[in-house]
């Protein structure tokens, strides 16, 4: 039954995404701020499908910690879940994403229209400079910059691998950084077809205000996200139907930092 439910959801995930992109494509002729509503509608649709088909719910804690205006949201990256479902929390978010996503037909057009920030991972110094300039523009427009400081998805319970690029953003943009933790990797694991029922808990922590030395900021951010994420994994053990991924964590069957 789990496999069947997961299959139905995965098929609908991609088909509904395609249908909505085609259906809403005329909105791309509108100014960005007038057409943005289609993105949170897409996100909420997928949240509804997760809840109805696989029984995956969400609990958000700490909404009051989100500042007004522009800031950086530094999020734990465990799953595909957080890339699509946290969008409605923000008024005008822009993701920092790999430039190859711009090349996907239709989807890439949307990322360009709504001014998501692409980076070329093959040219790190040039990519960092371009990213900072685009991020400065976004903050000036009072947008929220969504970034996964680890760069790629890490399984729940795996040793973290944070990059230092976000510290450069923090230093140059001089805006608050909001650490965000969650335990989505327990329910929609990285590279997994199966999506388990349960409740993803998201914890939004108080912002780290500008002014710290980059290395001090980086250490404080990592500690905040990792401490909260680990606590949420432990909290999930008391769920009515604990995720099978917890057994993998207990058995040490998660990648090491070198993976």
Automatic annotation (TrEMBL):
Keywords: Acyltransferase, Membrane, Transferase, Transmembrane, Transmembrane helix. Residues 71-185 form the Phospholipid/glycerol acyltransferase domain. SUPFAM superfamilies: Glycerol-3-phosphate (1)-acyltransferase. The keyword Methyltransferase does not apply. One of its GO terms (molecular function) is acyltransferase activity. It holds the Pfam family Acyltransferase. It comes from the Bacteria. CDD domains: LPLAT_AGPAT-like. Residues 236-259 are annotated as: Disordered. Pathway: Lipid metabolism. The chain crosses the membrane at residues 7-28, 34-54. InterPro entries: Plipid/glycerol_acylTrfase. This is 1-acyl-sn-glycerol-3-phosphate acyltransferase. It comes from Roseibium denhamense.
């Amino acid at each position: 039954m789990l496999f069947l439910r997961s299959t139905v959801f995965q098929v609908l995930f991609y088909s509904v995404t395609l249908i909505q992109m085609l259906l809403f494509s005329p909105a791309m002729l509108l100014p960005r701020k007038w057409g943005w509503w289609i993105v949170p509608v897409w996100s909420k649709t997928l949240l509804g499908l997760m809840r109805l088909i696989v029984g995956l719910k969400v609990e958000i804690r700490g909404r009051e910690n989100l500042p007004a205006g522009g800031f950086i949201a530094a999020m734990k990256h465990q799953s595909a879940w957080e890339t699509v479902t946290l969008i409605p929390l923000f008024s005008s978010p822009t993701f920092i994403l790999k430039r190859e996503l711009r090349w996907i037909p239709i989807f890439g057009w949307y990322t360009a229209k709504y001014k998501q920030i692409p980076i070329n991972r093959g040219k790190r110094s040039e990519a960092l400079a371009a990213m900072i300039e685009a991020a400065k523009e976004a903050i000036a427009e009072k947008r929220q910059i969504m970034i996964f400081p680890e760069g790629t998805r890490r399984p729940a319970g795996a040793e973290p691998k944070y990059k230092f690029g976000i510290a450069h953003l923090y230093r140059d943009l001089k805006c608050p950084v909001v650490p965000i933790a969650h335990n989505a990797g327990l329910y929609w694991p990285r590279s997994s077809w199966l999506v388990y029922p349960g409740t993803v808990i998201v914890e939004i922590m108080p912002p780290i205000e500008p002014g710290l030395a980059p290395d001090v900021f980086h250490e404080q951010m990592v500690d905040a996200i990792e401490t909260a994420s680990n606590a949420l994994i432990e909290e999930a053990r008391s769920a009515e139907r604990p995720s099978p991924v917890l057994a993998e964590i207990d058995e040490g069957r998660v990648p090491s930092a070198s993976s």
